[in-house]
Specification:
This protein is α+β, with helices and mostly antiparallel strands. The protein has helices at about 10-20, 20-30, 30-35, 40-65, 75-85, 90-100, 150, 160-165, 190-195, 200-210, 235-240, 245-255, 285, 320-330, 335-340, 355-365, 440-450, 465-490, and strands at about 70, 105-115, 120-130, 170-175, 175-180, 225-230, 260-270, 275-280, 315, 340-345, 370-380, 380-385, 390-395, 420-425, 430-435, 455-460. The chain binds iron/sulfur cluster (3 copies).
């Protein structure tokens, strides 16, 4: 579709002015810079622009609707959805934007209920309380600034998505630290819009994952339909993998069946134990990514290499990356690389380290980094195994201060926003714990079984199983809440979950 010549710039500016949308106006004004940078071609540029216009129009019509009333609730949102033929989840995502733009106040109300089977307390969703701030749209100041504010507040997860979608390629992420080239930045705010550490509508993410029109109660490991303990039967993978090799087996199968064209993951760079993002093109490449890496690695930064229309992409990554991808699906602006994602394969992550911190851990254990064969976190300790088959370990509590400060605000251990989540906690050594979260994840796992690529048992039948996983996940959530509360008392910016 070529729109060149069919839409005049004046008409576009009229649309932006009518909408009073700073975001739309910036995209129109910076057309030349965007096309010059070569990240998006003209057709892709217009598709993104028109999708943004469409979403801004929907958002302002919701705002006008809410402006007519003193206070609103879920019933009102359902009426709006019906009137505009929108799914409730879409209306909720627009409401979340209005809330973050400080145009409305939103409170999710939960009731406490006792679960009699295990005598624990559960939260049950009751309603949403909405209040419009009744601000005139002309007074609205854009909140969609460059993600420098996220870098500066030390809450960047290092997922790399901002680099992967920036239309003028002006963000650099190095060893978990971000930098924006101010001279090139067009201040379009796209990075802010998609970043999982600006605002992340967790309730909506959970609804999408559970495929429900109800708001699910908070849970320890997110929604999953099935849980297994599994390990690969592919020898090339089991020879190299850290635990059960299931994430590599998923990619191996998807390439083998030509279900994907590319996959994104992490491989080791030339510097020992310093990972780098890898764009995989074949099942041979998958073997370069086996093994757990504890150093932060922005896998999603390579998304800008995949802006073709027909490419199918699987992404293996940690929970913050899965959040970024699901948020991008909910706030879809037809960015080609984001629309190419066909599988989100999440891995468990407790925390990550900078490369310097990893070297420091080696130093504390008196191990030369070049001799490290495997690193692992297990039973509250950080283990290093050397090429000479020696084992070294240190209690996690003694190295927690070395973890990235930015990871302190991370609530998710198990990649709650993935199609399928894979990790080691809960399963015996040499096996993976696998949580199936979506229909896609289920079909993929069943295909691995059908093709005899994995051994699998119900997680209920293994020790320590789900109870341990839930315990560790709950402790990560608690730690995150404590850090967020502390930052708030110090008036430091926190993510809006
Ligand atoms: S969290 Fe991800 S998207 Fe946000 S600033 Fe950091 S790297 Fe960029
Ligand atoms: S850094 Fe962010 S605001 Fe600046 S051009 Fe890139 S995406 Fe837009
Ligand atoms: S702890 Fe969270 S923010 Fe940090 S790397 Fe892991 S998933 Fe990302």
């Amino acid at each position: 579709m070529s729109l060149e010549g069919k839409i005049s710039r004046d008409l576009l500016i009229n649309i932006a002015d009518t909408l009073d949308s700073y975001r739309v106006r910036v995209l129109i004004d910076a057309k030349e810079e965007i096309l010059d940078s070569g990240i998006y071609n003209e057709e892709q540029y217009y598709i993104i622009l028109f999708k943004m216009v469409e979403d801004e129009m929907k958002k302002y019509s919701l705002y006008q609707y809410l402006n007519q009333i003193e206070s609103g609730d879920l019933k009102l949102l359902k009426e709006f959805s019906k009137l505009h033929s929108l799914e409730l989840v879409k209306t909720l995502s627009l409401l979340e934007l209005l809330h973050n733009e400080k145009l409305v106040k939103v409170e999710y109300i939960f009731d406490n209920a006792i679960d009699e089977t295990n005598e624990s307390e559960e939260k049950i969703f009751k309603d949403i309380a909405i209040q419009s701030n009744k601000i005139s749209p002309s007074e609205i100041k854009s909140i969609y600034e460059p993600v420098k504010v996220i870098f500066d507040s030390k809450i960047c997860s290092g997922c790399g998505l901002c680099v992967g979608i920036c239309p003028v390629n002006c963000i650099e992420l190095n060893n978990g630290c971000g930098r924006i080239d101010d001279d090139k930045c067009i201040r379009c705010g796209l990075c802010y819009y998609f970043c999982p550490r600006t605002y992340l509508p967790v309730n909506i993410l959970n609804m999408v994952q559970e495929h429900t029109s109800q708001i699910p109660p908070p849970s320890k490991v997110g929604f999953f339909s099935e849980a297994y303990s599994a390990r690969t039967k592919i020898k090339e993978i089991s020879d190299l993998c850290q635990d059960g090799g299931i994430s590599s087996t998923c990619l191996y199968y998807l390439f083998d069946q030509s279900e994907i064209d590319y996959a994104l993951g992490a491989s080791m760079s030339e510097n020992p134990w310093r990972p780098e993002p890898l764009l995989m093109k074949s099942k041979r490449d998958v073997l370069l990514t086996t093994g757990t890496k504890y150093v932060n690695n922005p896998n999603l930064s390579l998304m800008n290499k995949i802006n073709g229309n027909t490419q199918r992409l699987a992404i293996v990554g940690v929970p913050c990356m899965m959040q970024a991808l699901l948020k991008s699906e909910i706030y879809d602006l037809h960015i080609p690389s984001q629309n190419s994602v066909v599988y989100r394969i999440g891995i468990f992550c407790m925390e990550s380290f900078s490369y310097e911190s990893f070297l420091k851990i080696c130093e504390l254990l008196k191990v030369n980094v070049e001799d490290v064969k495997k690193a692992d976190i297990n039973k509250g300790k950080f283990f290093i195994y050397t090429k000479d088959e020696e084992e070294f370990n240190i209690p996690i509590k003694d190295i927690t201060h070395l973890a990235r400060e930015d990871c302190e605000v991370c609530y998710d251990l198990t990649s709650e926003s993935a199609d399928i989540s894979i990790g080691s906690i809960g399963s015996p050594s040499g096996w993976n714990t696998v949580l199936i979260r979506t229909q896609k994840g289920k079909i993929l796992y069943e295909a691995l079984l059908k093709n005899d690529l994995i051994e699998s048992k119900s997680l209920d039948t293994v020790k320590p199983g789900l109870p341990l996983l839930e315990k560790v996940a709950a402790s990560k959530k608690k730690k995150c809440s404590t850090h967020i509360a502390k930052k708030k008392t110090e008036h430091i910016r926190t993510p809006s979950y």
